Amino acid sequence: MPCGQLPFDPLLLVSAVFVMLTGFVMITSASLDVAAKNYNNAFFFSIRHGMFIVLAVIGALLVWKVPIRRWYDLGPWLLVFGFILLVAVLIPGIGKEVNGSQRWIRAGILNLQASEVAKFCMTIYLGGYLVRRLNDVRNSWKGVVRPILPLGFFVFLLIMEPDYGAAVVLMAAVMGMIFLSGMRFSQFLVILSGALVTVGSLAVIQPYRVARLKSFQDPWADPFGSGYQLSQAQIAFGRGEWFGTGLGNSVQKLFYLPEAHTDFVYSVLSEELGLLGALSIVMLYLVLIFRIFYIGRQAERQRQFFMAFITYGFGLVLVAQVLINIGVNVGAVPTKGLTLPLLSYGGSSLMVCAAMIAVVLRVDYELKLQRQLLLTTAGKARIELIGPKPLVEDLEAPKGVKKDSVKQKAVGQKPAVTDISHYSEETIEEERQTLKSKKTQHQSKTFDQAKAKRRINRESI
């Protein structure tokens, strides 16, 4: 990297870290009384979440080290892995039931939530599929229907748990990725209509979902029954007013608001930090999501479509979860069992979200290396595109490099050109010195030729 340029997007990283640290503080505040009563340790959830943060950071560092091409190769295997997890969680003795839902797999001190891993696996697989079958997706129904089939299996297994919220998030992310890949708008409307019918049908099949819909329309019609959770969340928002009651001074967390440190931690945050604190968190999420989509757009401009698609996919997953969770807390969306990314209590959600951010940071890192490589070689480098076929003729050149001088070649299983994901800063510096040396040699040779020509002219006179 050039001097002074960071190998990652600072705004993305800083916003993610701030949300994570805010989550740790709010979980500590929201869980003190519940933990003291149930576990005789007021900091039980705080300590566990601190451990989850450490594991998430270590996992994110390991994920960041993985080249993006490796994720492309692992896509089909990750799809199979996600399917196995969703099946395993339904097997008695393997899956763990909590609050009537069998969503977790026992994994030592951590209960692994299969749906969180499934979102990551499906996004990676679909990104690779869209690169391999992009022409089919844009020009035929066959290319659009194929990724819908594994999505259907995943959604079916999620409903069996049941995890209706995760199914909605996964459907939204997959449809968004296919739409952003360039499918016809008429096809998108047909699939969107089918998805809405499916979601609506699933919402009225189970009696408890019907009760949630009724309580969503008017939670105060039954404030001590089906509307209890939502009405208590609204009380928390009302008590917070502009500046909040102060950190640690929430009343709703004192056994009034269920799941105060998990799904409804945003309500406790709004009560203690007020409207300004709640809007500050929204602003952090806006910065985080904007940077993710900006990096995805940069990847698309540099014709790294796999990088672009998985970045868009992760951004869509986070957007859907943030909108649904905050919507539930403010009463704009029916109650769902979804965490607030990077902020709510939960090891699986935290680690998977951190892994998503790490992959996006890796995409940004490789894109910067690619642009720097083009600059150091005067635009003569051939850049490897992750995918089987070239989708366009020219790579968009960085500033200072003529577009016509940029060469690219897409590769399949056997890379025929340099894989820039393995380039280090030392390699970039070597390229620069080599180019400088060649330029010096060329200038010296030209000078010698001119000198010899002048000598010949003098002798002829």
Q: What do you see in this structure?
A:
The protein contains 14 helices and five strands. By secondary structure, the protein is mostly helical. The protein has helices spanning 10-39, 44-64, 68-88, 114-132, 134-139, 141-160, 164-180, 185-205, 207-217, 228-240, 265-301, 305-330, 347-376, 425-460, and strands at residues 95-98, 101-107, 110-113, 382-386, 407-411. A three-stranded antiparallel beta sheet has the order 1-2-3. A hairpin with a 2-residue loop joins β2 (101-107) and β3. The chain has two domains: 10-367, no CATH class; 424-460. The radius of gyration is 27 Å and the shape is globular. α11 (265-301) runs antiparallel to α12 (305-330). Mean pLDDT is 81; it is low at 389-398 and 403-422.
Largest sheet: 3 strands, antiparallel
The pLDDT mean sits at 81
Shape: globular
Order of helices and strands: HHHEEEHHHHHHHHHHEEH
Q: Over all CA atoms, what is the radius of gyration?
A: 27 Å
How many beta strands in the DSSP annotation? Answer: 5
Low-confidence residue ranges: 389-398, 403-422
Total separate domains: 2
Across the major sheet, the strand order is 1-2-3
Tell me the number of helical segments per DSSP (H or I, 4 or more residues long). Answer: 14
Range of helix content: 55-70%
Span from first to last CA?
55 Å
Question: What is the percentage of strand-forming residues?
Answer: 5-15%
- Structural category is mainly alpha
Short description:
By secondary structure, this protein is mostly helical.
Question: Notable features of this structure?
Answer:
two-stranded parallel ribbon; mainly alpha; single chain; 461 residues; 5% strand; 3-stranded antiparallel sheet; 2 domains; 67% helix; 14 helices
